[in-house]
Amino acid sequence: MVPDGRRSTGKQLRNTVPRDAHGTWRPQAGRKDPIAILRAADATRQPDLVPLRYGRMLQTPFTFYRGSAGVMAADLAHTPATGIRVQACGDAHLMNFGGFATPERLLIFDVNDLDETLPAPWEWDVKRLVASFVLAARANGLSDRDGENAAIACAGSYRQTMRDFSNQDVLETWYARLDKNTFLAMLPKSQKAVAAKRIAKATQRSSSELVFPKLAEVVAGQPRIHDTPPTIFHQEGSHADDYLDLIRGVFLNYRDTLSEDRRVLFDRYELVDLAVKVVGIGSVGTLCMVALMMSIAGHPFFLQIKEANASVLEAYAGNSAYAHHGERVVQGQRLMQAASDLFLGWATGVKGQHFYLRQLRDVKLRPLVETYDAQMLRIYGRACGWVLARAHAKAGDPWMISGYLGMQDQFDEAMGKFAVAYADQAERDHAALKAAVRAGIIDVQLE
């Protein structure tokens, strides 16, 4: 079907799923207990790290939200959807976007956490993203109207960008990216200098050279990763041998997932140390390691090895086409990002665990959302909306989605309403977590 026909088909979907229908959120009858959903997921996590995960989630409703993608996935399955599927992020909250370097050493802004990626309705990513803006606004002491305006700006940017891509050749969509100059141009004058300074600092040297003094030290002439428990630590005793065996097996089949030219590059590094590294909120408890490598020229390089389990979307959107969850993450990442890490690949551990690997912090710039005022939150919303639309357009159907969304702001306004309503739900679920902790049902470890 030609693009005009696909747009027309998308427009007709408004008859069965009106755009304003997306603006309501009411818990369905018999809604699953959010604490039960979280505890069920604990079975795939390291038991000694689970209390740390809950300790991080306990801090605020926003941190709870960031760690509860599985709860929202269950809720989203009962919300209106057009039936148009894309390669979805699965956990598209605003902290899972940021700056990083492409293999060509260009700094871009993009979605950067795709552990839950899976083909799914496009609406699910948009709804998870817009609700995160209201929770971020509340965490910053801003009003609900400020958060709603940021959510509307995000949804409007998504809609307008999707329309732009529907009017372009498909190759232009794959080439499109939000680079540092475009991002800086979006900022008010008061923010440009600060952002430009952060970018300059992050790009002046290789990431491994910048990270090495923070993560490693030289002991008896040998480089070694610092122990900073509970977030970075070496396994001791018999467990140390288990981890060394694990990494040897991982590296052996990881190498096979790289292209031939990248295997040549990988072979010029030697593993010198390995430690467990606890990351994020949603990922706490899944096995994540950092490997310190040294090149034949004696320069450091860090690889992140991260366990991949089933996506939280699978129970509601269907099983992955990939039997290996590391491959699911890698292939989804390649589909959604404008450019992916040079060392991105996957592997199976000696006990059958699924992993994916990439460089650690390749010129990674985390958004300083906790410092954003209402204006900056709206600007950041527009940037995230642009990036998400481009990611969905790459492997989805921008013509049908754009035809459905149209040129007016009905969908944007609906997303603003949904964002506030679901932020209220996240606060109620956070209160349920606090009650479970007080009752001794859940153990927590505070940092």
Please, how many helices? 18
Tell me about the largest β-sheet.
6 strands, antiparallel
Estimated radius of gyration? 22 Å
Which structural class do you get from the secondary structure elements?
alpha+beta
How helix-rich are the residues, as a percent range? 40-55%
Low-confidence stretches: none
Overall morphology? globular
Summary of the model, kept short:
The chain is of the alpha+beta class. 49% of the residues lie in helices and 15% in strands.
3D structure, described in words:
With 447 residues, the protein is an alpha+beta fold. The chain has helices spanning 3-12, 34-41, 50-57, 61-66, 69-76, 122-139, 144-166, 170-175, 180-186, 189-203, 207-215, 238-256, 260-266, 314-317, 325-336, 374-395, 398-405, 410-438; strands at 85-88, 97-101, 107-111, 118-121, 178-179, 216-219, 222-225, 232-233, 269-277, 288-295, 300-307, 345-348, 354-359. The strands form four sheets. A six-stranded antiparallel β-sheet has the order 8-9-10-11-13-12, sandwiched between helices. A three-stranded antiparallel β-sheet has the order 2-3-5. Strands 1-4 form a two-stranded antiparallel sheet. Helix 6 (122-139) packs across helix 18 (410-438) and helix 7 packs parallel to helix 16 (374-395). It folds into two domains: 3-203 and 366-438, no CATH class; 207-359, no CATH class. 49% of the residues lie in helices and 15% in strands.
